[in-house]
Amino acid sequence: MTLTVFWIFGVIAMGSGLLCITRKNPIASALWLVVTLFALAALFVLLDAQFIAVLQVLVYAGAIMVLFLFVIMLLNLGRPGPTDIKGPLGLLGATVLAGALLLLLRPLGEAPLPAGIQLPPGTVATLQQQRGMVGSVATPLFDTYLVPFEIASVLLLAAIVGAVVLAKRKL
Amino acid sequence: MTFFLVSSAIKVFVVFNLIMVGVALLTLLERRVCAWMQDRLGPNRVGPQGILQPAADGLKNFLKEETSPAMADKTLFTLAPLVSFVPALLTFGVIPFAAPLPTRWGLVPMVVADLPVGFLYILAISSLGVYGIVLAGWSSNNKYALLGGLRASAQMISYEIALGMSTVAVILLAGNVTLSQVIAQQQQALWFVIPLTLAFVIFFISALAETNRLPFDLPEAEGELIAGYHTEYSSMKFSMFDGDAVLWGVGHPLYQLGFDRRSECREDAGHAGRLRPQDVRLPFHLHLGPVDAAAVPLRSTDGARLEGAAPAGPAVYHAAGGGDLVRPDPARLGLWSRHGLGSRGPQCRAADRARVVA
Fold this sequence. Notes:
The complex is a heterodimer.
Chain A: H1 2-22, H2 26-46, H3 50-74, H4 87-110, H5 123-142, H6 146-167
Chain B: H1 2-37, H2 53-63, H3 74-90, E1 101-103, E2 106-108, H4 118-126, H5 129-139, H6 143-174, H7 179-188, H8 197-210, H9 222-225, H10 235-241, H11 252-267, H12 269-274, H13 282-300, H14 309-321, H15 330-341, H16 344-357
Antiparallel strand pairs in B: 1-2
């Protein structure tokens, strides 16, 4: 059952991801990306990570992709124009590069997981029972990984300040 | 397993139908109260007190021709109403509507799916409604529709932040994101709307903005954008956004109900949780009404907006412009709304009387 669902959503994610990068129309591309994000959220649910799944939909599909669409519409990029792909030579280059990437990724897929990140079966469920769905994400974030978390927040803050400064010359 | 499937199917059926009928009746209520506040009669001809008006409008919209602009993006044009309609319905799936019902086969929770992250699920799903509006505006290949879509997306993105932030207070107080437990919290103590009055006011205002209801109806401002993002829509596709039918509410009043139900979870849900199983039908009756009714006065304050104007639009344009003015130019429309509808008190009373006499 779980495996069937995994395959269904895996195929949807891969297919829509492919369609996302091959469509010439930017709006269609963005929408296929939304479908990909949804399929990924479903895969997260399969991993018992409902909280992450909901955040994926809320943040990426609900906020970021809407902004993407907004910008595409505002700049009126919607109508399909000439493509950047340069004939058979470009296609050949892309194929070679994709093959090289696959070759590089292959050993990574065969390597065993380090013991540090392996979880005994049933741990996730117990953890969620103890700390709740949100707590099992929040507690490590504010406990073990506090410093990286704060660094990421400062980085985001800097990005926000930078965006405001760039967009508004006169404050 | 079989029992789970059967009970879920029954729950889905009941919830869906209650919402649809509730939306239809609330639409009628809205139109009647609006009319009453503007000293008109409102729809009162179909059935006793116009109770069948939504059904008549729905039938009318079903029978209308489906049109589609020549240069529109056909796929997205068809998809857009669905994209705005489905998320609004999906949010109801996690809202508990009564205490668990004991049956011969065990305790049945009175919620379609009691997700552990129900609160966030509502936020996530309702943030998807904006796609429908944006895509409708873009795919119509009409500059007014595009402008409406742009305005709508800008407005909805902006107010979504305020909306999310105003619900964070509830999560903090409840210490939980499971809706059934948020309700249980309020059962034990007092309704969150009392300590969180300010947050609730912010929530209400941003919910109005998210649903493009009246003080925030710039995305479909008739005076300047014809009808905004759904200018090119007709028939049931139109109803899915805004119509005046059984599914009148399908687009935004339903969407608004989605929000109402969420606010209900903070203000009245304690009440719903306390209901005995035999009172299952009460919560809908109790909670769908008041908050929607609160939005009605806001709507009727704008004299320039004919309530239920959307499908009546062409007819009104016709009457106001004389001749076959189905798509009036915006300048003329602006003039018309300033001089015609702006002072619409006595005229429209007279029009209503004339209709009654006829």
